[in-house]
Write a structure and sequence with these properties.
Helix content is 73%, strand content 0%. It is an all-alpha fold. The protein folds into two domains: 32 residues; 110 residues, no CATH class. The protein is rod-shaped and about 100 Å long. The termini are far apart.
């Protein structure tokens, strides 16, 4: 099989590096150059463009990850923790109410509110329910409820916390 070869002019320093690289990969200089050409062609890497540093790229990714973590922590402290505190307060008061006993007349406003929520869910087109309307209906039921031992200020504070989400 005949191979057509040609001469390529490079400076002495580049020729010395070519020799070192080809020997380190256990290839002839011709094989090394042929493979290098195909490598650049397949990868689309421009050999004259600046070489990016994996260390720099990792630093950029770490910086972006730190920003995401800061955002999540901010959301946790500003939104989730206050909401959790309000839920804990409601839970305690509900436990107190359950301990004192609730009769059917006390539950009627709550069941009416649940019926309103059910109507909102049934009216949702293509199962797309407006979450805000459901939450508002739930807390309207809470607001009307006499069975929950909570003053109006507490109820309003809970509604405001949930609507801020």
């Amino acid at each position: 099989m005949a191979t057509n070869l040609t001469t390529v002019n490079i400076d002495k320093a580049s020729q010395k590096e070519l020799k070192k690289l080809s020997q380190s990969w256990e290839m002839s200089q011709v094989e090394f150059l042929n493979n290098a050409i195909w490598y650049f062609k397949k990868t689309g890497i421009n050999p004259i463009s600046p070489i990016f540093s994996p260390k720099e790229e990792m630093a950029k990714m770490n910086k972006r990850l730190d920003q995401v973590i800061k955002f999540i922590r901010h959301q946790q402290t500003e939104k989730l923790n206050p909401l959790l505190d309000e839920i804990i307060i409601v839970e305690r008061r509900l436990k107190e109410n359950i301990a004192t006993g609730i009769n059917q007349d006390d539950l009627n406003p709550t069941t009416d509110g649940l019926k309103e929520i059910l109507e909102i869910v049934r009216e949702g087109k293509d199962n797309k329910i407006n979450f805000r309307n459901v939450v508002v209906a739930m807390f309207e039921a809470l607001r009307k409820s006499k069975s929950i031992n909570m003053d109006e200020k507490d109820k309003e504070r809970i509604i405001d916390a949930i609507l801020k989400i």
